[in-house]
Write a structure and sequence with these properties.
The protein is mainly α. It has five helices and two strands. The longest helix is centred in the C-terminal third of the chain and has 21 residues. The protein starts with 43 loop residues before the first helix and ends in a 23-residue tail after the last helix.
């Protein structure tokens, strides 16, 4: 019988289970490490705090010529930046919505939506080149270029026999 543990990559362990157990030697219940990567966060609230800190870290407090303070963006919101802030890989962030349905799903989905909205707004601001923003949206948010082709033929077909 196969081990019933789930590995860090989300796959079922490929080892054979120990005799009289559902788990292999590495994933036995007596083992301190049941396999797989431990969670970085104990609760969605803890994760949300780290996400909020990431978004806030993209701004500094600046002062205008009238001496009034305002928040000045010093870097854009990105999937990679969020991944670094959460201590996970960029692919983990991108795949999270499709692979996980636990209590952290909505927290990650809201953060991704905020980053996607920011990227989309860059297209309408027209600041700089938009090709990089489009590349980002296609690769990080599954946007697609959709082209429609009308392939209708209203005429007849003439067969010409010019052999021989």
């Amino acid at each position: 019988m196969k081990c019933q543990a789930i590995t860090g990559s989300g796959e079922q362990c490929s080892r054979e289970a120990e005799e009289d157990s559902k788990y292999c030697w590495q994933h036995s219940p007596q083992c301190d490490d049941p396999g797989g990567r431990p969670r970085e966060f104990e609760s969605p609230e803890e994760m949300q705090k780290a996400i909020d800190e990431y978004f806030e870290s993209c701004f500094i407090t600046a002062t205008n010529s009238e001496g009034e303070e305002y928040q000045k963006r010093i870097r854009p919101w990105t999937i990679s930046g969020l991944a670094v802030a959460l201590g996970v890989d960029r692919r983990t962030i991108l795949n999270y919505e499709n692979e996980y349905e636990d209590e952290f799903f909505r927290t990650i989905a809201r953060a991704k939506a905020k980053i996607e909205m920011y990227a989309e707004e860059q297209l309408f601001r027209g600041q700089g080149k938009t090709s990089g923003v489009q590349f980002n949206l296609k690769n990080n948010f599954n946007w697609k270029d959709k082209q429609e082709h009308d392939i209708q033929h209203s005429g007849g077909v003439e067969i010409v026999d010019d052999i021989g």
